Structure formats: C-alpha cells, structure tokens
User: What shape does this take?
Amino acid sequence: MTITLYELSGADRSLRFAPHCWKSKLALVHKQLNYKTEPVWFTEKDKFAMSEQPLLPVITDGDKTVNDSWAIAEYLEAHYPDAPSLFANDEAKEKAESFHQWVSTVLSKHIPGILILDLYNVIADQDKEYFRRSREERIGTSLEEFAATPEKHIQGLQAELASVRELLATKNYLGGDKPDYRDICLLGTFLWIATLGTTEFLEKDDVVYTWYQRILSDYSEVIPKSVMV
Assistant: This one.
C-alpha cells in the first residue's frame, strides 16, 4: 500500500518548501518506501481534516493517519523495521530527538527573516491574507520590516551552526559513516531556504557546506533541480 504525504506547496503546486514536510519526505526516501504526495495550500486544511489538527506534515498509511514530522519518523521506523533505519540504535534515536528539537526551535528561528518575503511572493493568492495576518501577529511587525536585514539573520544562522561544525569535523555525516535522521532534519531545514531562492547561507569553505553538497547528492532523487545547480 502506498503512503500519502500531505505537504505545503506554493501557488505552483510543484513548489514544496516546508521544512517539516521535507523531513518526512526525506525519511520516506531514506527508508525506500513507496509514497505519493498531495500538495496543500495554507488555506486548504480540509484536505487533511482526517488528522483532526491544523498542521502539516500528515501521512496516511492505509487506515492510519499520523501528523508531526517526529511522530512520522517514529511511525515509519516502528512499522517498517526491515527498511533502512532512521536511527541505528536507541542512543542514536535519543540524539536524533534532541537534535530535532534544537533544529526546530533554536536553529530555525533565524530562517524566517531570510526568506519570509520570498515565501509570501510564491504562495497562492488565496493564502496571502491568512499568511500575512498570522505571521505579522507572530513576529510583531510587518513582513517587509522583518525581512529588511536578511544578512543579520544569515549571520545568526551561521553562528548557531558552530556545534554542527564540531560534529562534522571528524565525520562525513551527523549519523557517522552514513546519514541518519539528524542529517535529514538539517537538510530539510536548509531546503526551506534553498527552494525559495538563491540566497547564499553557507560559506563554501565551511565544513557544513561540504556536508550539504554531499547529502544533496545522496537524496538527489527528490531534490529540486534548481537546488542541485
């Protein structure tokens, strides 16, 4: 049976940008599972009403419905144990959960200021009023003012990556010799930026940049061509 992944999209249904949705898609690819995707605009919450909550990603697998990227990773690992693993062992899973939380709360706080106007410009017209209102309530200012100094947010992102540089100084992946869910979390977050424009957010002499190019190649079957250039 084919798993269905519901993920946010731009006005162009082929444009998929949401970091948590990318994490779930990359997890499906990593585990070599059959899946299809259903693009969803911000205001199309009826498409995944069966999840009884308002956020993406959501997957359906037969009669099972799972939401939240971490919960989806746990579900896939538990229900498809013979597929390639997202977590090598219990210790790796604990590290992955901690890293997932850090990426989602600490690292990701620097990213909206880099791309929020790019995102606003590519979403469906019917989403724009909702997006502007909800985001301006959240950030306490206009989208334009918030996005006025992207270099400040890029500097914050690069500084926050110091701990990742330490981990990658002695190995090719956060998972060691091969990617695990920590690598998926970071790649999914970087794709949030990369799918929405050409902003350079990593220096080419940065070990994180070297990792980024390596892992883009590893998951190239689902990476947009515009990102691979």
Summary: Strands lie at 3-8, 35-40, 58-61, 64-67. The longest helix spans residues 90-105. The mean pLDDT is 97. The first strand starts at residue 3 and ends at 8.
